[in-house]
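Page 42, continued from yesterday. The earlier attempt failed because a stray header line got pasted into the input along with the sequence. Redoing it now with the clean sequence only.
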Amino acid sequence: MIGEVSIFGVYVPSLLLLTLLAIVLTGLLAMLLQIVGFYRIVAYRPLVDLALFIFLLGLLVLASAPFGPTAA
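This time it went through. Structure tokens are written below.
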């Protein structure tokens, strides 16, 4: 994961962009789970949504990390 991304000359932390992407993906996945009926078997929906967000954010961070050995 790189430190910053330049968007129109403004440096934005990459973690902020990954967080926004994880929020969008969580919303889409929550709608899909609602349509499928998954939330009927869940006791506390906000906790499941939070866990889903953290899981997706972790996957995005791992996916954006450079592969292989890096020179320090």
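Notes: DSSP finds two helices and two strands in the chain.
Reminder to self: strip header lines before submitting.
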